[in-house]
């Protein structure tokens, strides 16, 4: 069971508090806005109205005893930076901060914040990819050159089995799993036939995966 | 080359515009705030000051000709919902909208928005998982029972090779790739030795992956 402090109960801060509590951990929620403190009081382990730029308050809250402190302050970039700096100076074990924009993110990294998150930017980038090639459902970039993709079966593969699809010899792509409706076949055998609307989970060089995606 | 319209040039809207343009597509940016329109004018294909709730304006902009329209309005939930409804009524091909909270998301889904995004909430959930079990770097949930995880090598596996690790017979887990520093070995052979600080990419039943993660 871990202990976290979340400063700033905006959309990001609130969702973080809820998820950490749901996972069974203790969370202290801090905000200058009394109404936001009240709204989270039933959910957070402890909810306190305070200004995070005040290091006396942070000491009184024993802020260095937490496994991690997350600065989820948004529009007030100065408050976000000053708070992060104060936490680092006090020797907080792990500091995470949300960045408003590129510049803000760079400053946070420079002052030693352990993890800088850009929720809106990262989600926008993911959405852009979904919009442009909506056949890719999920992916992990293993490196600059390799990836694992979950994608809708390209039309040219419908009705083929793993053997005659030629994916491994021609593209160096391995099919890790095939989802048909709600069921999933992990490590499917060579004779398994690929159906229309199946979802393929494949691993291989990213260039090959892009070629596969265009085989539609 | 596709054409998109983004309504609302906040952090999410702006990042989306930048990424779609970077990927080579045309983007019309719309906002009531003149300064935000000015700031994005060099980047967007076209940038217009307008109120998206005004359907005459949307018609003048030929809004139904776009591949997708993204409503990236934040705090003004009413404007977000009204705009989305107007776009659906006008027959826009694909409508995406950003939700401020759970309720807002439900309403957007009910009025037929094709994709509802919760950037802050989704990023908060991802961060929560990273904070709690920071050995898991990335993952794809293939289904409720299977997953692909990228994780830091558990201590008990250091110095073992794939064969004597016993992962497949004991846990039904397959090692898809091993990253050592900057290099990656995809489909490693049975005699490949796992080193401290290697990153393993594994597939298997989620329950087994959780057991593996705890072998530290
Ligand atoms: N110095 C401070 N100490 C404590 N809380 C603060 C401080 N400054 C701002 N906050 C709080 O941080 C919260 C989040 O800030 P704000 O709403 O500006 O961010 P946001 O980026 O729009 O949030 P989100 O995108 O997560 O919804 C607010 O509830 C605000 O009261
Ligand atoms: N009716 C409208 N028509 C066009 N633009 C609008 C309308 N209402 C709001 N906007 C614009 O939407 C943009 C984003 O809204 P806002 O800043 O409230 O959202 P936000 O959720 O804080 O954004 P983000 O989290 O993406 O930074 C603003 O620039 C605002 O001017």
Report on this model:
Two copies of one chain form a homodimer. The first copy, chain A, has 216 residues and is of the alpha/beta class. Chain A has two domains: 3-118, Rossmann fold (3-Layer(aba) Sandwich); 129-213, Alpha-Beta Plaits, CATH 3.30.70. Helix content of chain A is 37%, strand content 26%. Chain A has a six-stranded parallel sheet, sandwiched between helices. In chain A, strand 9 and strand 10 (183-186) form a beta hairpin. Chain A is elongated and about 70 Å long. Chain A starts with a strand and ends with a helix. The mean pLDDT of chain A is 93. Chains A and B meet through helix 1, helix 6, strand 7, strand 8 and strand 9 of A and helix 1, helix 6, strand 7, strand 8 and strand 9 of B. Residues 7-13, 30-33, 36, 51-53, 72-76, 79 of chain B line the site of one adenosine-5'-triphosphate.
Quick structural gist:
Chain A is of the alpha/beta class. The first copy, chain A, is 37% helix and 26% strand.
Helix content of chain A: 25-40%
Query: Biggest sheet of chain A, strands in spatial order?
Result: 3-2-1-4-5-6
- Which structural category do the helix and sheet elements of chain A fall into? alpha/beta
What CATH architecture label of the largest domain in chain A applies?
3-Layer(aba) Sandwich
- Regarding quaternary structure, what we see is homodimer
Number of strands of chain A: 11
Total DSSP helices of chain A: 9
Q: How far apart are the termini of chain A?
A: 48 Å
Number of domains of chain A: 2
Average predicted local confidence, pLDDT of chain A? 93
Largest sheet of chain A: 6 strands, parallel
Report the sheet-strand fraction of chain A: 25-35%
């Amino acid at each position: 069971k871990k202990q976290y402090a979340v400063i700033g109960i905006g959309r990001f801060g609130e969702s973080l508090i809820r998820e950490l509590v749901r996972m069974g951990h203790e969370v202290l929620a801090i905000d200058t806005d009394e109404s936001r403190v009240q709204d989270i009081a039933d959910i957070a382990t402890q909810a306190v109205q305070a200004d995070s730029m005040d290091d006396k308050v942070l000491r009184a809250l024993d802020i260095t005893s937490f496994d991690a402190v997350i600065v989820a302050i948004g529009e007030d970039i100065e408050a976000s930076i000053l708070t992060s700096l104060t936490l680092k100076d006090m020797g907080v074990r792990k500091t995470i901060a949300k960045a408003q924009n590129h510049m803000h993110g760079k400053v946070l990294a420079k002052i030693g914040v352990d993890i800088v998150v850009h929720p809106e930017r990262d989600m926008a980038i993911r959405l852009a990819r979904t919009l442009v090639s909506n056949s890719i459902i999920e992916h992990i970039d293993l490196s600059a050159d390799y990836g694992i993709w979950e994608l809708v079966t390209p039309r040219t593969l419908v009705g083929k089995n793993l053997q005659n699809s030629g994916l491994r010899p021609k593209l160096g792509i391995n099919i890790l799993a095939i989802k048909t409706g709600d069921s999933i076949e992990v490590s499917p055998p060579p004779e398994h036939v690929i159906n229309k609307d199946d979802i393929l989970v494949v691993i291989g060089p990213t260039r090959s995966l892009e070629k596969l995606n265009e085989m539609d």
